[in-house]
Design goal:
This protein has seven helices and 94 strands. With 1116 residues, the chain is mostly beta strands.
């Protein structure tokens, strides 16, 4: 048993699982036999109870049932132990000591050696080794030592023996999965009860139905799996803010139920949960659960864990010093040698519970993270929470009234959350800090019939008892949306019908998983499961997305519709990502320490960023070293908020916070301080900028910005709907713009301020279907079977006869939704992509009509480096090359003829010089904020100045030679700004003074250059910000269609699509033409130099690459 273990030696698991299954069957038979025997006694006891002897018979029945249950349990455990005596190979030891070899193989050592276990995954570790032999600071592993998944080493060296007792360096998962223990115990329990026949059958049926309902934890995992496969919540059966359509239960678990967050290294998230299928009571009422209302209770031969979400989870009653894993809930339960219990998952956060009391209950004592940050809980004698203290020393005290929680108070001074109830003790109002109403609820017969969120949206629910349980049958809200639910348990179909008649349906399999979702447009998505958990979807159009997951709920791989696979590896038994390998084989990795702190990150090109911590108990880094060796230094307060940041150049920025973690002030490296003020509800109400100017904000009762006043006391006013969307904005000129929405929040009309509007229509899925603009142009959208855009019909402005010209643009996408082709009247475009979906090539092939306009064939190819940066681009003009430093900053640009532009940088990438070839073009100096202070330009030096708000206030240029004439010495320009930050004047030594005037909305009203003798230019606008002609004889007419026809002496004409095609000024006239992408391709006419013709060319990506202008002097 002491043979030295090496790399490639096999590890194995026992047959305890098979023994347990056999034991369960035998034990179940024994328990059932006892049940039938006890049934006769029970019935006889009930019949004889009126004679005074019934209680003895009932007691005898229970005794027989108990005895048979114990015999069944004993039989099960005996067979399970016999199955544990044999091993089956599951995989090899993969890694070993770096410099110690046994029989020419690296020695296996505890903790460090990785193991590929066929049952538990490729990232297991050796967890035991010798107490006497240490290799690389870890115990040497031997045959018989265990891994952290409870496998044993089956092989070892034939001639190297390592003695000593086994020491354990990592927690070891029990051999037999908790899931099987639970199934076994429940089988025995229900087998024993089966003999009682109809006794309590109705209650039992109800309990069984409730037990089948998914808890909030499971619903969260379903949503997570669905989002990973890029399908929405509706496809997995979550609708109606929200209702779980499969069972018809309503639940609440999102941020609307998050009453407050106390910042600290381990933040306190005061989260509420409610679920109609939750039979438990709470300090908030039936069905509710606050995150701290969690406990362990002994039940029969096991434990029931009430989770922070209020779900009830069954665990076995494990012995001290052991732990067990709950596969469905993805959590461990551990029983420590001092009697206390912990529940934890791969996040590293551990929930600690006391030892079981005499009543068989364990209460929550504290929550801790791997670095020792913790939240401690104090309890009253009646079992309710008295107070909690977080890792920053902040104390939250609970107050109660009539047995219900009335408030949570910070240090017994400030009410963070308040709770009010109706006469039946049901929660009806939740208020936040400062008295703001966060939530309202309505109830009937213990069921939630309405709730109102912070925006004021009221959601109403109607219930009906179906198959012995209340289920939601109608949902409606104050925005006008309505859903009618139907349930068919025989066919497994659930469906909803909207107020507009659209229907969606879900087909459910025997495990109550959604097997097929039929969307509101009739298209179907099929959901595929493995071991009861979603791992693939077959999408409309036939494409498939797939994923693989390990037993801990971590994604191991995802495969897109094109069969491109991304692989994920994880750090030990945690949720910290260790490596991502893309479809192209490139990988990025991260290293974590034993406290799950990030130590380093390595990008695909091998550049490493490192993180440094001051001690083992600190979870926040004090230094970050970039791949070039530059260091950022950080300081944190007790709340886990950064108070000082020193960049790699030594520039320091500081931050100050209040007790709620709200930022009060920030001071940059130049000493400029911005201050902020907050109201009692935690809303930002004022900002004081470094120059002393002040902006204020006012909020409505729903926590939405109602008024914003700038530094010049001008005000913008906003109104919102119940969906949290803006419905009107009144600007500083008292103009009001309005938005209109349908019941699902889709924008259907936007007023442009001139009496005209934009109108929008949508398909049943909420995708844009039609858009009509103020100039009567339109766009219509069509989609293919997979849901990707396939066609856009551009409707031009109708002509005098009412005919509307139409241009059609066609699109094709691959199975993953990436654009691979598009076409219109003038050209077709073909797009090529690599495994990561990056564009690597595009070709433009003109049609005959396009060729007639001068459009030519063109192609562009693109190439990327290992880090994903564009490193080469080749097109008609030749090839451009790009080189980057390890921080991703462009360092060298190679031009088509081989010349090179180089950027020299310091710190995190700030440019200090630019070179062309070996010739220095310009050097830069910068201030502590890394803004440019000066640059050399040959013999001249340009300098810049800034004000406290970072605006440029001056720019000077002077010669740097030994002898200069006075008139050559200095060129200067000064800038001045308004209180709103608008440029009001420029003082220029060459042009003199330039003055600009604005209205309250920042629109240019006048422009004046006195030294140039120019007339003062004045401007006016309509309410849609179109320029207006100023005519003293006539009032200005708004441009309702947004097409300016005349301004001063300029006259304009447009084509049907809205492109300017003619401009006339006096005797000068120009004409313009465009391609189907609305790009200018030619211009002609007369100008200051006489007649001209101009042509413009674009590459396949739409970038202008050439312009040729022909005049009487020739073509340039």
């Amino acid at each position: 048993m002491f043979e030295a273990a090496r790399v490639d030696d096999q590890i194995g698991h026992s047959h305890a699982l098979a023994g347990l299954i056999g034991g369960t069957i035998v034990g179940g038979l024994l328990a059932a036999a006892g049940g039938f025997a006890s049934r006769a006694l029970l019935i006889a006891g009930m019949g004889a109870s009126c004679l005074g002897v019934g209680l003895l018979l009932v007691g005898a029945a229970l005794l027989v049932g108990w005895a048979s249950l114990e015999l069944g349990t004993s039989a099960r455990d005996s067979m399970a132990q016999s199955g544990a005596d044999s091993l089956s190979p599951e995989g090899p030891i993969v890694t070993g000591a770096r410099d110690v070899f046994i029989n020419d193989k690296p020695a296996a050592i505890a903790t460090t050696s990785m193991v590929a276990c066929g049952r538990d995954g490729p990232s297991m570790q050796m967890a035991q080794g010798s107490s006497k032999v240490i290799i690389n600071d870890m115990p040497a592993s031997r045959k018989g030592d265990k891994t952290n998944c409870d496998a044993q080493v089956m092989e070892g060296s034939a001639n190297v023996i390592i003695g000593g007792e086994a020491v354990t360096t990592l927690p070891i998962t029990p051999e037999v999965s908790e899931n099987w223990y639970k199934a076994s115990d429940l089988t025995l329990f229900f087998a024993s009860l089966a003999g009682f026949g109809g006794a309590g059958a109705a209650a039992g049926k109800l309990a069984k139905l409730i037990q089948k309902m998914p808890g909030i934890g499971k619903l969260s995992r379903i949503l997570c799996r669905g989002s990973s496969l890029l399908i929405g919540a509706t496809a997995v059966g979550i609708v109606a803010r929200p209702v779980e359509i499969i069972s018809g239960q309503k639940f609440l678990s999102d941020d609307d139920e998050l009453d407050f967050v106390l910042p600290s290294a381990l933040p306190v998230r005061w989260q509420r949960y409610w679920r109609s299928g939750n039979p438990g009571d709470s300090v908030l009422g039936r069905g509710w659960n606050l995150f701290w209302e969690t406990s362990l209770e002994r039940h029969e031969e096991g434990l029931v864990w009430r989770s922070p979400e209020g779900d009830y989870i069954s665990f076995p009653l494990v012995e001290k010093g052991h732990r067990t894993w709950c596969q469905p809930e993805k959590r461990w339960l551990e029983h420590h040698r001092d009697g206390h219990w912990t529940v934890y998952d791969i996040s590293g956060e551990v929930w600690h519970y006391s030892a079981l009391s005499g009543e068989g209950r364990a209460t929550l004592t504290h929550i801790a993270d791997p670095c020792g940050n913790r939240t401690d809980f104090e309890w009253r004698d009646d079992g309710r929470l008295q107070a909690l203290t977080d890792s920053a020393g902040q104390r939250v005290i609970c107050r109660y009234r009539d047995g219900r929680l009335s408030g949570a108070w910070l240090d017994d001074e400030i009410c963070l959350a308040g709770y009010d109830y109706d006469g039946e003790g049901q929660l009806i109002t939740v208020t936040g800090r400062g008295g703001s109403v966060l939530r309202r609820f309505g109830w009937a017969d213990g069921l939630m019939i309405s709730h109102e969120d912070g925006n004021g949206l009221r959601s109403d629910y109607q219930w009906q008892e179906i198959d012995s349980l209340p289920r939601v049958v109608v949902y409606s809200n104050s925005a006008g949306e309505r859903l009618n639910f139907s349930y068919n348990f025989e066919t497994g179909v659930r469906s909803v019908e909207r107020e507009d008649g659209a229907r969606a349906a879900w087909l459910v399999d025997d495990d109550d998983n959604v097997a097929c979702y039929t969307d509101f447009d009739g298209r179907q998505t099929h959901l595929l499961y493995e071991q009861g958990e979603l791992n693939a979807v077959l999408l409309p159009g036939g494409a498939m997305r797939k994923s693989q997951w390990d037993d801990y709920g971590r994604m191991l791989s995802e495969t897109d519709e094109l069969e491109h696979t991304t692989l994920y590896q994880w750090h030990r038994q945690s949720d910290r990502m260790a490596r991502i390998t893309g479809p192209d084989g490139a990988s990025e990795s991260a290293q974590w320490d034993e406290r799950l702190r990030l130590i380093s990150e390595t990008d695909a090109a091998g550049a490493i960023t490192r993180y440094h911590y001051p001690n083992a108990e600190t979870s926040l880094p004090e230094r970050i070293t970039d791949p070039l060796g530059g260091e950022v230094q950080l300081r944190w307060n007790r709340q886990g908020l950064v108070t000082q940041r020193t960049d790699c150049s030594g520039s320091v920025t500081t931050f100050d916070y209040d007790r709620f973690g709200q930022l009060l002030s920030s001071t940059d490296a130049e000493g400029n301080t911005t201050r902020r003020e907050w109201n009692a509800a935690g809303q930002l109400v004022a900002i004081e900028l470094p120059d002393g100017s002040r902006e204020t904000l006012r909020w409505n009762a729903h926590g939405q910005i109602e008024r914003w006043r700038d530094a010049l006391e001008s005000e913008v006013r906003l109104r919102w709907n119940a969906l949290g969307q803006p419905v009107s904005m009144t600007d500083r000129l008292n103009r009001t713009r309005r938005w209109h929405y349908d019941p699902r929040g889709n924008l259907i009309r936007l007023e442009n301020g001139n009496g005209a509007d934009y109108r929008f229509e949508y398909d049943p899925l909420g995708r844009p279907q039609r858009e009509i603009r103020p100039d009567e142009t339109s766009r219509q959208f069509s989609y293919d079977e997979a849901g990707w855009l396939s066609m856009v019909r551009h409707g031009g402005q109708p002509d005098a006869d009412g005919e509307q010209p139409v241009e059609v643009h066609l699109y094709r996408h691959d199975a993953a939704g990436q654009l691979i082709w598009r076409a219109h009247d003038h050209a077709g475009f073909h797009y090529t992509r690599d495994e990561l979906g990056r564009l690597i090539g595009v070709e433009r092939r003109p049609t005959d009509a396009g060729a007639a306009l001068g459009i030519e064939f063109d192609s562009v190819t693109l190439r990327y480096d290992k880090a994903g940066n564009l490193c080469e681009e080749a097109g008609a003009g030749g090839a451009l090359g790009y080189d980057y430093d390890v921080l991703g900053n462009l360092s060298v640009l190679t031009l088509p003829e081989g010349q090179q532009l180089s950027w020299l940088r310091y710190g995190s990438g700030h440019v200090s010089a630019v070179k062309f070839g070996q010739r220095l073009v310009s050097e830069f100096t910068r201030d502590r904020l890394h803004r440019e202070l000066s640059r050399s330009q040959g013999a001249r030096l340009q300098t810049r100045g800034y004000d406290a708000l970072g605006r440029r206030t001056s720019q000077r240029s002077q010669l740097t030679g030994e002898v200069t004439l006075p008139e050559q010495q200095l060129l200067e320009r000064l800038y001045r700004y308004s209180g709103r930050g608008e440029l009001t004047s420029v003082s220029d030594r060459l042009r003199g003074e330039l003055h600009f005037g604005y209205d309250a909305e920042g629109r240019l009203l006048k422009h004046n250059e006195p030294r140039q003798g120019l007339t003062v230019l004045k401007f006016s606008y309509d309410d849609a910000d179109n320029l207006l002609e100023r005519d003293a004889m006539m009032p200005p007419q708004p441009v309702s269609n947004n097409r300016l026809g005349q301004w001063q002496n300029l006259f304009f004409r447009y084509d049907a699509r809205g492109n300017l095609i003619q401009r006339r000024h006096g005797l000068h006239q120009q004409h313009y033409s465009y391609d189907a992408d609305n790009r200018l391709i030619s211009a002609s006419g007369t100008g200051p130099e006489g007649k001209f013709t101009a042509r413009y060319r674009y590459d396949a990506l739409g970038r202008r690459i050439a312009k040729a202008v022909t005049t009487q002097r020739g073509t340039v």
